[in-house]
Design a protein that fits this description.
Elements lengths: L1 H15 L2 E4 L2 E4 L2 E7 L5 E7 L7 E7 L13 H9 L3 E5 L10 H18 L5 E11 L1 H14 L3 E2 L2 E2 L4 E8 L8 H14 L6 H14 L9 H6 L10 E10 L11 H10 L4 E7 L5 H7 L3 H12 L3
Parallel strand pairs: 5-6, 5-7, 7-10, 10-11, 11-12
Antiparallel strand pairs: 1-2, 2-3, 3-4, 4-6, 8-9
Length: about 300
């Protein structure tokens, strides 16, 4: 009798769950998260509405940060959920990290292929391939702009000649765009390694190791976006990946200090014809926007939504 009651109670609990798992999909009512591989090594999540797949809705692609050494789409799933509930189709991307790879080109290739997958396939999930906003945070911000610059200049990456994108908007959250000279790079790497030995700060040591393996002894100019743009003539690029760029910085960011975006904005303004550039500065730290979305801070939610909706 007791066993029967326990089984009955267990069944009731299962039935009462509002989320069910079906063939790799997490379903809550009509809102779905689907995980797909876009390369052998990497996957992405598509957040969409099963009742609106015949519509053409705006799309947000988000690329996580983590010093090229950590992070994942799963850790920032709240970004996909947020935009999904605001009426967007959202895509969250994983890419190869150190020590899985010692080459920044592998990360660029992964981000490039994720964007390409989205432009080619997002209509299946109700997204409009002509209404794509690309967002990246920290190292993810670095990678999205680096990838778009390389693609716009038709550069070769891992034997692939990249082709330009035609996106709606690129939003760089607390990103960096230049690579330090050898001396400054060595100082920064050593500092990160020293700080990383303290409890709870091991991730900074990993950031230092990643920078060492990914940059030292490499042709750093290939990854310095400002230098890449300096190599082109004034107003010689008719379109660089998107019609609008928004750079977000924060006053108390000690990881990517306020002002880091200035050289990149200057080079975009100089090199690209008719580009629209916006610069937002908020009173917070490095994770101001992400923490706000994660914690459902309505003020920060509205700030991010206003930026995204500015092109629609």
């Amino acid at each position: 009798m007791k066993i029967s009651l326990l089984i009955h109670s267990f069944i009731i609990c299962l039935v009462s769950l509002s989320i069910e798992i079906v063939q790799g999909q997490t379903v809550e009512s009509n809102l779905v998260k689907l995980t797909l591989n876009f390369t052998k090594e990497c996957d992405l999540d598509v957040y969409y509405d099963t009742e609106k797949i015949k519509e053409k809705r705006p799309v947000v692609v988000h690329v996580h940060g983590g010093g090229w050494a950590e992070g994942s789409k799963d850790k920032e799933a709240y970004m996909g959920d947020f935009f999904q509930r605001k009426g967007f189709v959202s895509v969250l991307v994983n890419y190869r990290l150190y020590p899985q790879t010692y080459e920044l080109d592998d990360m660029v290739e992964d981000v490039y292929k994720a964007i390409k997958w989205t432009t080619d396939n997002i209509n299946i999930y109700g997204g409009d391939p002509e209404q794509i906003t690309l967002i990246g945070h920290s190292a993810g911000a670095n990678l999205i702009t680096l990838t778009v610059v390389k693609a716009s200049l038709n550069m070769m990456v891992n034997g692939i000649q990249l082709q330009p994108f035609h996106l709606k908007h690129i939003i760089s959250l607390n990103g960096h765009y230049e690579i330090e000279n050898d001396k400054d790079l060595a100082v920064k790497i050593n500092l990160l390694k020293v700080i990383g030995v303290f409890p709870g700060l091991g991730f900074l040591g990993d950031y230092g190791k990643a920078r060492e393996k990914l940059l030292v002894g490499k042709n750093k100019d290939e990854y310095d976006q400002c230098k890449l743009l300096k190599g082109v003539e004034e107003k010689s690029i008719p379109f660089l990946g998107a019609g609008k760029y928004t750079f977000v910085e924060c006053t108390f960011d000690v990881i990517v200090p306020l002002g880091t975006a200035t050289p990149m904005m200057e080079q975009l303004e100089r090199a690209v014809e008719g580009i629209v550039i916006d610069h937002k500065v908020y009173p917070g730290g490095h994770n101001y926007i992400l923490d706000g979305i994660k914690n459902k801070n309505s003020k920060i939610e509205n700030e991010l939504l206003t930026i995204v909706e500015s092109v629609y």
